[in-house]
Each structure stands twice: as structure tokens, then as C-alpha cells.
Amino acid sequence: MSFFMFKSILAVFFLLAGIIALFSMLTLMGKTERKADAKLLRRLHKGSGFVFAALLLVISYFCVKYWASAGDQISTRAVFHGVLAFAVIIVFVLKLLIVRFYKQFLKFVPVMGLTVFALSFIVFKTSAGYFFLRTFCAHSESSEISTPSPPVLKGKIDNGAALFSSKCASCHSTDREESQGAPGLKNILKKEKLPASQRPATVETILLQLKKPFRVMPAFPSLSEQELADLLAYLKTL
Ligand code: HEC
Predict the structure, then answer these.
(1) How far is the CA of 236 from the centre of ligand 1 (A)?
(2) Fewer CB within 10 Å: N-end or C-end of the chain?
(3) Considering only CA atoms, which residue is closest to atom 6 of ligand 1?
(4) What sign has the CA pseudo-torsion 36, 40, 43, 49?
(5) Which of 209, 224, 237 to mutate to test the pocket of ligand 1 (most atoms within 8 A of CB)?
(6) pLDDT tens sequence across 38-85
(7) What Å distances lie between residue 140 and 124, 134, 136, 203, CA to CA?
(8) Cβ-contact 52, 18 below 8 angstroms
(9) pLDDT digits (tens, 9 = 90+) for 7-33
């Protein structure tokens, strides 16, 4: 199972825990009639809140590790996702602090809880939601994307290697085929299929990956024709 699939499955449980925490509290505080099962609802809220917090920590740990290795190369979507995830953590921790220690601010807690849920939903959508969408619904769409034509320029392997180490090596290794977050690119153009999308392994589909990445990889729209030719010349040697 790939890193992103694992993280996305954990995220489904994270969202479910958030939904349970939300509705247990909404039922407890938002309904006017007397609730016989108030104790149960409170327990449910606490229990799901605990699962939510634990998953938030575990997933954040994986994300921060990935972010640390990929550096500034990550996609705009991933930056947006990461920043919102930090906001979730901050509001959530403040909410817990108020509930435990700063009870004068208790009146803000329901709004903070709703904010945590709303932000978590967006955080889920911008990573796991996007990942599932691309994984399960991208087939019909991929036939509509026109594959770019290979560069006419002749590529220089040395320049390609330098480009690779500045733009790609933070995520991809070249000495193995297995995935470590991102797939290893050894033998990338000697195999039949590309590792993530399963498209045929050709110059055209790699160019497509650089312009319109299949799933979570950032796009590289600013590479010139010459740079693309250099990169591909280098990838052929792997
Ligand atoms: C921020 C990390 C990151 C960077 C930087 C990055 N990639 Fe990727 N790349 C990925 C991930 C993750 C995947 C797997 C895609 C997926 O699962 O959606 C991938 C997949 C690929 C694939 C396989 C695509 C397929 O269709 O299966 C190729 C080829 C590739 N990258 C080449 C490159 C090249 C060349 C560069 C540099 C110009 C680069 N990558 C930069 C993360 C990155």
C-alpha cells in the first residue's frame, strides 16, 4: 500500500471521528427537549474527540516528515492543506485548554468546536478527498487529456542530472524502483508502465506527469523545452 493510500485511509477514520464528535455535541447542546442519555452523548463526544486527536497527531507526523523531505517543491494544494491542518491543531488545542483551565471562555467552545470540524473537513477534502477522487475517478478523464509531443531538441544528460537533483531528488530516488513516499525512478523508461498511474512508460506520459501530474506530485509548468529534453535524456539512463 502506498504512503498516500495509508494516510488517506487513516484520514477517513479521522473525519468519521470528527462527525461523531460533532453530532454528539450538537444533539446534547442543540436540542431543547430533555436528554435522558446526556451522559452517553458526553462520553461519545469525549471518546470520538480522543480518536480524532490521536489520528490528527499520527497523520500530521507523516505529513511533516514528507514535507521535511520534499521541502518547497510540494504542490500548492499540499501547502494549502498543510497550513489549514496547522490551524485545526491550534484551534483544537485552544479549545481543550479552555475546557480544562480557562473556564471563563467556555462560551466560545461550541464555536471553536464547529470551526475545528469545518476546517478538518476542508483539510480532508484537500488531501485524502483529492487522492481518492484521482485514484478512482481519473480513468474516464485520462483519455481526454492530450499527451504532449516529445521535445524536438536534443537533451544533455549532465544538465538533466543537475536538474533532477535540484527539482526531483528530494522526493524520488534513482537507485531503486520501490516507492518511499514517491516512487523510485530506477529503470523508469525501461519498464512497461509508470508506477503510479499505470500509463505506458513513454517520453510522452512522463511529460504529461510533469505538466499535469496524475495525483499528488507538484506540476513543473516552468521547465523549458530544453530542460524537459535534458531531464528525459537523464531519465532514460536510469
Ligand atoms: C514533492 C515531491 C515530488 C517531487 C518534487 C517530484 N515528484 Fe514525481 N512523484 C511524486 C509522487 C508522490 C508520485 C506518485 C504519484 C501519485 O501517487 O500520485 C510521483 C510520480 C512520478 C512519476 C510516475 C508517474 C506515473 O504516472 O506513475 C514520474 C515519472 C515522476 N514522478 C517524475 C518526476 C520528475 C522528473 C520530477 C522532477 C522534475 C519529480 N517527479 C518531482 C512526488 C514528487
Answers:
(1) 15
(2) N
(3) 168
(4) negative
(5) 209
(6) 889 999 999 999 999 999 999 999 999 888 888 778 888 999 999 999
(7) 24, 11, 10, 22
(8) yes
(9) 999 999 999 999 999 999 998 888 777
C-alpha cell of 29?
Answer: 447542546
Q: Are 109 and 98 in contact (CB under 8 A)?
A: yes
Q: For residue 222, how many other CB atoms are within 10 A of its CB?
A: 7
Distance CA 88, CA 45 (A): 17
> What is the CA 87 to chain-centroid distance, rounded?
16
**CA atoms of 45 and 116, how far apart (whole Å):** 14
For ligand 1, atom 9, which residue shows the shortest CA distance? 217
Question: Are 211 and 99 contacting, i.e. CB atoms less than 8 angstroms apart?
Answer: no
Task: Using the mean position of ligand 1's atoms as its centre, give its distance from the Cα of residue 185 in Å.
Answer: 9
- Write the residue with the smallest CA distance to atom 5 of ligand 1: 168
Least confident range of 27-41, 86-100, 160-174, 213-227: 27-41
Q: What residues have CB less than 8 Å from 169, skipping those under 6 apart?
A: none
Whose cell is 535534458? That residue is: 230
